[in-house]
Every structure is written in structure tokens, then in C-alpha cells.
Here is the input.
Amino acid sequence: MGGFGRKRVSFYQVVVVMVVSMAVMLYTCQASINLHPLILVPGSGGNQLEARLTDGYKPPSGLCSRWYPIRKDRHGWFRLWFDPTVLLAPFTECFAQRMTLYYDPDVDDYRNAPGVETRVPHFGSTQALLYLDPHLKHITSYMEPLVKSLEQIGYVDGETLFGAPYDFRYGLAAEGHPSHVGSKFLQDLKQLIEEASTSNGGKPVILVSHSLGGLFVLQLLNRNPPSWRQKFIKHFIALSAPWGGSVQEMLTFASGYSLGVPLVDPLLVRDEQRSSESNLWLMPSPTLFGPSKPLVITPNATYSAHNVAKFLNDIGFEQGIQPYKTRILPLVERLAAPEVPLTCIIGTGVETPETLFYGDSGFDQQPEVVNGDGDGTVNMVSLLALESQWANEKNQTLKVIKIDGVSHTSILKDDAALSEIVGELCYINSGCTSSLVSVA
Here is the structure.
């Protein structure tokens, strides 16, 4: 009984310390009048996407005719992502066809499906990042918990807090190759950064990205001169960034990936997922995963990150080989240091696909998966890539915060993760000591 009493007192002491530390952190941030403007950059699938069908649209079936979906605005725009009808098999085909991109080798760039126009709503605001479907807030919440946490420390949407949604199907390409949609997003993000800084008295901007958004931000920084970065960027916080890609992408390309939704046949969305330029960008990096680590094993072949082109050929996606070799590989060979302060916040200790085993049935079946460490989506070698890549960079500040048991997406919702993110922002904004921002 006495031992139990001592443990209980110890537990309450820990709780009191946590509560007091959080209160001090929130007070410190709220009391600060020096909040730097902050821009949120979502990950793949992390913002709403709208579409409109033109006369050139040819539906794959009667169910996919131009009348579907019924709910459209007066100009014919409707929400393409996220649309809950994608969960119903007859409409999954409609969704996949409208989301599919096409690589045109003649112009060396990607385009939408014929007759499908797309647009990204609410650029500059966090509105399109809160929920993927505002009518289904509970089950499609994305950055809403993070935004609420930011508002609690004084951030205001449209004044000091901004969102940079984008068409996440498109990616970027190596120098010398066009990437119209992705490059346009970088231009828009650069302009938003400059406007956010100007409207806040010239204060430099804090960029907070999730997942794929981190790759876009790093490219933006490295594609602009040091003088611009020094003037406009205060700090870059990357959450769950897949710097070197993920083995999960090889599963997606081989067999399709339904995100664990039981009603969706992964084969129905496989072709659409293969067509995504950004998905190709997220293939495991040869530089980081190396030539000897087996990532996919079949009865007839073993594939490492150095065999991705052969892998694409063998799964029946030959059209992906040229853009992968010419546009993607040069882009991911080396991640240049942007020479702005950078904090990586990652989840660890979550089972993450590391090796995929396929049997005689081929790639139309889901593989047997051997897991390793990571955040459930991105492997640890990729999450920690900047530590190895930038080990000898003298002008680059890099901090890595690891949170055990937090997954790739729960990092935006988990209380411990949100405390770490807010604590880091408090430190960046006000220079408060680490003891004030720690809640662990």
C-alpha cells in the first residue's frame, strides 16, 4: 500500500509539471508581440481539390456521366478530393479516371485527363487544410487540430497564419525539365511568403510543412538566392518529411493502396496512383536506401532502390520509366542544404513497410510485408536523411525531434506531437528557453 501511494504521488507530480509547463509555454507565446507570420504547407492529399468537366470529357461508364456528382456550383465546379462516394465501388472508377494524370513525352510534362479541369480552393487561407470534406468534419479532419493549437498561441488566419494548398498529384522535375503546375505552385508560395512578411512589418516567415509539403518547401528554398532566404525565411519546420521517399510507394505502384479503407479495391485506384507525378517523386531514393537493401522480392527478381526503373517495367508501368530516369532521379540524388534554420519533427517506433514479398500470383495481390522502424508510412532512413546528407554542412542548422509511437498523420493530431510543435514555435518566436517549452 505504501509503495502504491508513493507511485501515485509521483504520477501527480508529473501531471502538475506537465500542466504548469504547458501553461507557461502558452502564456509566453500569447504574451509575445513578435509572432512571425506562419505558412502551413500540407502533404499529399492534405487539402481539398475541385474539378469541372468540359465537353471533352468522355466518361468510362454511364455512372460517370457529366451529371455526377449532382452537387456543383453554378459554374460546374465540384469537390474532387475528398469525395466520400469514392468509397462506393461503382463510383471509385469515376474518381480514379478524373484524378488520373497523363505524361506527354513530346512536351515532357504532365496534364489532366481530357475534359477535366482542376483547381485548388482557398489558397492563402487554412480553410482548405482543416477538413478534406467540410460536411464530414469528424472523419476528414486534417490540420484542424494543429490550426486550433496555433490559434491558442495567438495566430490568426489571414493575418499571421496562412495556408498553401496545392494540386498534390503534380510534383517537380530536375533542372531543364518543365513542370508547369508544380513550378506555378512554387511561384505562388513565394509570393505568399513575401506578402505575409510585408503585411507583418517585414518579419520573416516560419514555414511548417507536412509530408510531401516538405519536399516542395526545400525545393523552393534552394531555387531562390541566399539573399531572398535570409530576408524572408525565419525558420522551416518539417513534419514527417519523406526526404528519401518510402517503400510504401513501391507497394502503391505494384498493387495499389486503399489507405486501409476496406470498401475500396486497391486495384481500382492503382492506375490513377501510378499516374501521379508526386508519387513517382516519392519512390525510395537510391542515394539513401542504397544498392544492396532488398525492397521488393518476387520469385523471379529482387529490387533495390537502384532497380526502380526495372521494377516499373516489370509491374507493367513502362510509361513511368522515362520521367523517372530523366525528371526524378536527378532531383533526388542529393538534397542541397538551404542554409536556413530547419527543425524536423518525426514519429518513430511505428511498424513501417521495409520489404515486400510477392508470390507466384504476381503484383495483382497484396504482398507479405516485413516491417521496420518509421512512422508507419515513411522509413526511418528517409525521415533522418538530412542528418546523413548534411553531416558536413557548416552553414546549416538542423534539429531533429523524435516522438515515439506517433504515426505519419497523427503527428498533426496527437497531443504530445502538438505540444512539441507549439513548443518549437514558441522558442522560435520568443527565444524562450527549452525548459519553458518542454512538456515531457
